Amino acid sequence: MRVLSLLGSQHVQDDIARMLKRVTFVTSDCQDTVAFLSVLEQDPTIEASLISRQQLLHVDVDAFFQAVRTVAPSLRLVLLTDDPAGDRQRLENTFAIHQFLPAHSLDGHALERALFGEETPAERPSKVKSLPTRGPYRIGIFGTTHGAGVTSMTVTLAEAFAGTGASTIAVELTGNHTLSTVKGKAQYVCEMPPEPPPQFTIVDFGVPFHITPEGIFMGKSIPQEIVQLLQGCDLKVCMAFAAPWQIQKAVYFMEDRNWRHEITQGYVFLFDSLPQGLPAPPVPIFERNDPQFAERVAKLFLGR
Q1: What's the CATH number where 293 sits?
Q2: Residue in 8, 3, 115, 5 with CA at minimum distance from that of residue 57
Q3: Tens-place pLDDT, residues 153-199
């Protein structure tokens, strides 16, 4: 795995390199956020990053992570911090940071798990292969809150399908134009493709509904025709958080009387970790690193 670091110490990078033989640092440890973003922009092969929270004390953290996500929307982010719980609550919801590890005790196993063991299923393209030439199929991805990983999942699923040789277009309907910066095997656009459609269209719907932490619907952020486009997808993937202050946003779709008739086997919910104490859901629920999700995607399309 090719990794970029912002650790504030070359010695720390060297120690990590000795612990993790499968990691290749693309350059020496970056001295500041400017250098980090410069390297990231110039090298599209970078797969993950290790960032020390200490290196962000005197910068606009939100602006930095927004810049990172603009340059590399599918980059795996691992933050080393003295306050994992606090930073997780503040940052995870916005920037889809994958792991928060304690900075004071670097553990090789924890680092390896953070970098290799928690991939979203779509980051394993070998799980989706030999797809039929039938179609077209449309997969819609939306989140219950910002930072849930919608854009990352869009990119990784699009690249997985395109990697099989199938014609694939990823469409961003959020107005952010983030996907226009992605270079890969799939085609990335900001409007629905004209007829005839490709074999696979992966649509990033962003966060189309405003749901409070208590699970109360407050309105839509997209027109009704876009909602209907989402509902008409062959597979709908909802990205959500399992934290107590986020879980009710996902529960809303499962229990609210206005949505229950829409939730069918065409929906899948992906959580950052399996939620605890959730009533028996009407749809499949997976953890993002659960290989069964990728297998379900493959089976869904291979079985048609």
Answers
A1: 3.40.50
A2: 8
A3: 888 888 888 887 888 899 998 887 788 788 888 899 888 877 788 88
CA dist 79 and 88 (Å) reads 9
Specify whether 277 is located in the same domain as 195: yes
Same-domain status, 214 and 110: no
What spatial distance separates the first Cα and last Cα of the chain, rounded to whole Å? 35
Q: What HEC string does 207-244 produce? A: CCEEECCCCCEEEECCCHHHHHHHHCCCEEEEEECCCC
Residue 136 makes CB contacts below 8 A (sequence gap 6+) with: 196, 197, 198, 199, 200, 201
Both 26 and 85 in a single domain? yes
- Contacting residues for 268 by C-beta, under 8 A, at least 6 apart: 235, 236, 237, 238, 283, 284, 285, 286, 293, 296
pLDDT in tens, 1-14: 889 999 988 998 99
Residue ranges making up the domain that contains 190: 122-302
Return d(Cα 126, Cα 212) in angstroms, integer. Answer: 38
